[in-house]
Amino acid sequence: MSPHTTPSLQLLYNADPGRTHWLELPAQHASVGVARRFLRGRLTDWGLPDELHADAVLLASELTTNAVVHTLSVQILCGIGLVTDECLRLEVHDHDYSGTSLPRYEPGPEDEGGRGLLLVEQLAASWGVSRSGLTGGNAVWATLTTANHVGGSRHPVSRSPQPRTV
Predict the structure, then answer these.
(1) At 24, phi and psi to the nearest 5?
(2) Cα-Cα-Cα-Cα dihedral sign, residues 121, 143, 116, 91
(3) Do the beta carbons of residue 66 and residue 113 sit within 8 Å?
(4) Pairing of strands 87-93, 138-145
(5) Rg over CA atoms, the chain
(6) How far apart are CA 6 and CA 143, in angstroms?
(7) Is pTM beyond 0.85 here?
(8) Per-residue pLDDT reduced to its tens digit, 14-49
(9) What element of type H or E holds 89?
(10) Cα dist. 103→2, 13, 117 in Å?
(11) Are 125 and 160 in contact (CB under 8 A)?
């Protein structure tokens, strides 16, 4: 599963600090719920459309779960930012220093897991993986646009396949 994006234009640690929030968490399963509650609070504070909330929380949950389950990190860093008034960006930074890319995984029909990045690909306007300047590990990011979440329905976003950025 490769991201269908261009390389990250700007990770959140370079963004406007008034429109960006960070949460450092232990890399434990319980942190996924904490990340979801943190995200819901920011979305509510920013007054973003309700239609965006469910997708943003699901994306954050998937990205956080992947960092907890698939890395040897002790801590993870979750970020949310309003890149523009219409574009929300989510990031999860791990401490995977191996420099290896994320493994390609194709779940079988009987597998109970392994579909998280398929959800990310379907819900996000764009997503990808970059090297984190904050942790030295991976920064997995996804963007959502309010234009795609107006009136309770998702509108397809055109994407062209691009190579994974690591």
Answers:
(1) -95, 130
(2) positive
(3) no
(4) antiparallel
(5) 15
(6) 12
(7) no
(8) 667 678 899 999 999 999 999 999 999 999 988 888
(9) strand 87-93
(10) 10, 25, 11
(11) no
